[in-house]
Specification:
Largest sheet: 9 strands, antiparallel
Radius of gyration: 22 Å
CATH topology: Urate Oxidase
Number of strands: 9
Oligomer: single chain
Helix content: 10-25%
CATH class: Alpha Beta
Structural class: alpha+beta
Length: 269
């Protein structure tokens, strides 16, 4: 049959990215506690299309996924991305998985466990024989306003805050570890199942540990700066304000290879 996609194109325009997006696909990912976890990802895959080709072969994106039977993770993402690049005869290829990730989490006082959902992502890119991988988590936390607590005779407003953390690493950092880093930067973590004694603990902990979005970013940055496995990070914190008709946000991106030794350090004197 005629290969229409490989027809010569005379317009002399290279397209940066061509591919498929929002493909819902079952995957199996690494789980620190259970070994593996089954979930469903939204997958995006693309290649760089040379100016001389009219189009790319969309079916080959799905064929590449089928070859790996949905098994994806930091250990094989490079091979998967390189296979995509090779199969489509491209110089560059990208692939991204966005998926819910679940962990068992105990309530802070009663110890009763419940399933907690987080958002996770894996991004891989092959460009000019160089592989780049970015791992991400999205974590809801609670923040309590330091200003509100300071100026009020009693009580303080608090809100649910979303933290998105993306990192490059030179050694494996588990999703669970990244989630815990984020939760340590909060006024208090969230839980699925809370009894009354747990709710009392969470409420009082948040009140004794107020955080602006700026505090969340800085606390998390200090911990990331101290982790030698992480070479680059991007933090985005967005708070759905409970007494304002807007959201508050703070963001920070750092390449640790160029980080000033004193930035992010803690003064212990």
């Amino acid at each position: 049959m005629k290969d229409v996609q490989k027809e010569r194109d005379s317009r002399n325009v290279t397209i940066d990215r061509v591919g498929v997006r929002n493909l819902s696909y079952p995957i199996v990912v690494m789980d620190r506690d259970s070994g593996t976890q089954c979930t469903v990802a939204l997958v995006s895959m693309s290649v760089r299309l040379p100016h001389e080709y009219r189009g790319t072969h969309m079916s080959r994106f799905i064929e590449t996924l089928e070859e790996y039977q949905g098994k994806v993770g930091p250990s094989n993402l490079e091979a998967l991305t390189e296979r995509l690049r090779s199969k489509l005869d491209a110089t560059e290829a990208d692939i991204e998985f966005q998926f819910p990730y679940f962990t068992r989490k105990q309530a802070p006082v009663s110890g009763i466990p419940g399933w907690m959902r987080y958002e996770a992502s894996l991004f891989g890119a092959c460009r000019e024989n160089v592989f780049d991988m970015i791992t991400g988590v999205g974590v809801h936390i609670q923040t309590l306003c330091p200003c509100s607590r300071e100026i009020s005779s009693y009580g303080a407003h608090n809100q649910r805050t979303m933290v998105n953390l993306r990192v490059r690493m030179n050694e494996l950092v588990w999703f669970e570890e990244m989630i815990q880093m984020v939760e340590r930067s909060s006024s208090t973590p969230l839980y699925t199942l809370l009894k009354r004694e747990d709710e009392k603990y969470v409420t009082e902990r948040a009140y004794s540990n107020p955080h602006f979005v700026e505090d969340v970013v800085r606390d998390l940055a200090v911990e990331l700066n101290g982790d030698r496995r992480i070479t680059w990070y991007e933090i985005s914190v967005q708070s759905a304000e409970s007494i304002h008709n807007h959201d508050a946000f703070a963001e920070l991106t750092r390449d640790k290879r160029g980080l000033n030794d004193r930035e992010g350090s803690v003064n212990r004197t």
